[in-house]
Design goal:
The chain folds into two domains: 183 residues, no CATH class; 202 residues, Cytochrome P450 (Cytochrome p450, Orthogonal Bundle), CATH 1.10.630.10. The longest helix has 32 residues. Strand 1 and strand 2 form a beta hairpin. Helix 9 crosses helix 11, helix 9 packs across helix 13 and helix 13 packs across helix 14. The protein is globular and about 75 Å long. The protein is mainly α. It contains 17 helices and six strands. The termini are far apart. The chain binds protoporphyrin IX containing FE (HEM). InterPro entries: Cyt_P450 (IPR001128), Cyt_P450_E_grp-I (IPR002401), Cyt_P450_sf (IPR036396). It comes from Funneliformis mosseae (Endomycorrhizal fungus).
């Protein structure tokens, strides 16, 4: 009897707390200052259920209903979506001084738990640390010595790719989505860590009736696990960002996903630390007269050491990087580089298939620079400057379909857009153009696209290339 009474009290207390929470939630929502049109939110999840997993598609739907400026809740976070160019001027202000939107996101417990608000670039809220990390990126990924090395790596990967293509049984249908993600992953893993990625080899081996690539199971397993873990980290960032700590940690199903992501982060951090320590040892024990390879990891390890010819001066960061800083930079490169590179490749192939005359002009440009295309091409860093038409094609494609579905910013102080007051720390999300994939011949229509749309591109390209 005592137990039943105890349970009864607990249930009542719990119900009362839930009711108080819901009343408080809707009271704050109804009395919010300066409301902007938008869908009705639910406690804890906000409008995530209306936005869906593909933010692009969800936003298009909401834009049709609520107009070019509407507000929604990403969990507890209020976000204002804007899809009209004249409203974006303030947000794109390139200066740092008095910039009302210099931060990418408001303070967010998920990003804090992942330590992304004090490390790296994308979500860093400490402007001095951000400046330093931008410098690091310029001195590594954007340095001519890395560019040269990456052309060498990319040539090797393309040779490998051609070798695989020649062994594929013509009856096999290529899953373009998987293939491009493998290609992007191999390029990024190889150029950033100096250790070859093998996801393309694995994909070829998975095709029926193809000639199998011979590779040790251990090496293949390690490479695939690392790449899978990096991809998982990318979805983990969105997951941590979107779900508030309580939902993440206690709501069934979501809690299971949280544990999966958390375990992956523990594994990935330990693996990156192991890779960095091993490479440090290799660099230290290498003969001093032997040049080291200019992959990103080596450049990060030697930055600001006696081996560095471009030491950072003038700001408070003239010391070498810690393992954690190196690891965060590598994760950021994967995070920012894999899906973007893969999607751009898809969009370019889509348009080249759609406009064969563009493909012919590209081939002419390659023949004029590299000669007979049936022979091995000598693609050098210097020769890239001559690819004027190729660059124009890339620029035009990324103009037509920007590969990032959204740009996110947070107000750094109280401001105003389109006559609406925007409070400090409010998230502002800018939307883009979308191609009408249902009818590839139709003119582009103004709206918003999501990475998921690539699947439709892949299908379209698959049909074309198998035709
Ligand atoms: C074709 C591939 C890529 C495309 C289309 C692309 C596109 C973009 C765009 C549009 C932004 C600005 C986002 C914003 O303003 O919110 C951005 C930012 C960024 N990208 Fe990329 N990106 C690509 C590849 C890469 C790669 C390979 C890296 C790795 C080094 C990278 C690292 C970054 C970083 C760190 C930022 C944040 C910069 C900052 O906050 O100042 N991206 N990228």
């Amino acid at each position: 009897m005592a137990l039943i009474l105890g349970d009864f009290i607990w249930v009542n207390v719990f119900t009362a707390l839930v009711v108080v929470y819901i009343v408080k939630y809707y009271y704050s929502w109804y009395t919010r200052e300066n409301p902007i049109p938008g869908p009705f939110p639910l406690p804890l999840i906000g409008n995530l259920h209306q936005l869906g997993l593909d933010m692009g598609k969800g936003a298009v739907k909401l834009q049709k209903e609520f107009g070019d400026m509407f507000e929604i809740y990403l969990g507890p976070t209020r976000a204002i979506f804007i899809s009209r160019a004249e409203l974006t001027e303030k947000i794109y202000n390139p200066t740092l001084k008095n910039n009302e939107f210099s931060l990418r996101t408001p303070s967010n417990p998920g990003l804090e738990e992942l330590h992304l608000t004090e490390t790296g670039i994308t979500f860093n809220r400490d402007l001095n640390a951000w400046k330093f990390n931008r410098r690091i990126l310029n001195l590594t990924v954007m340095s001519p010595k890395f560019m040269r090395e990456s052309v060498k790596f990319t040539n090797q990967i393309c040779d490998e790719l051609e070798k695989y293509w020649s062994t594929i049984n013509p009856n096999n249908k290529i899953d373009f989505a998987r293939w491009t993600s493998c290609l992007a992953a191999d390029i990024i893993v190889t150029t950033s860590t100096g250790t070859k990625g093998y996801s393309m080899a694995d994909y070829i081996n998975s095709l029926p009736n193809s000639i199998k690539v011979k590779i040790s199971e251990n090496i293949l397993g390690e490479s695939l696990k690392f790449i899978e873990s990096m991809y998982m980290f990318i979805s983990c960032v969105m997951f941590y960002f979107s779900f508030p700590p309580f939902v993440r940690k206690f709501v069934p199903v979501i809690k299971t996903m949280y544990h999966k992501y958390r375990d992956n982060n523990i594994w990935l951090n330990a693996e990156l630390d192991r890779i960095i320590c091993n490479r440090k040892r290799e660099i230290q024990s290498a003969p001093s007269d032997q040049p080291i390879e200019n992959n990103v990891l080596n450049l990060l390890i030697t930055l600001n050491t006696e081996m560095d010819t471009n030491k950072i001066t003038g700001i408070d960061y003239s010391r070498p990087l810690t393992n954690i800083e190196i690891s965060c930079t590598l994760k950021e490169i994967f995070d920012a580089g894999m899906d973007t590179t893969r999607n751009v490749m898809c969009y370019i192939m889509f348009y080249i298939n759609k406009y064969p005359q563009v493909k012919d002009k590209l081939i002419q440009e390659y023949e004029s620079i590299y000669g007979d295309l049936s022979k091995k091409l000598d693609v050098t860093y210097e020769s890239l400057d001559k690819l004027v038409y190729t660059e124009a094609v890339i620029n035009e494609v990324t103009r037509l379909i920007p590969p990032l579905p959204v740009f996110m910013r947070a107000a750094t102080f109280d401001t105003e857009i389109g006559g609406y007051k925007i409070k400090k720390e409010t998230t502002v999300i800018l939307t883009k153009f979308e191609i009408n994939l249902a009818d590839p011949e139709a003119p582009l229509k103004l709206s918003y696209h999501g990475i998921q749309h690539c699947d439709e591109l892949y299908m379209y390209i698959n049909q074309k290339s198998n035709a």
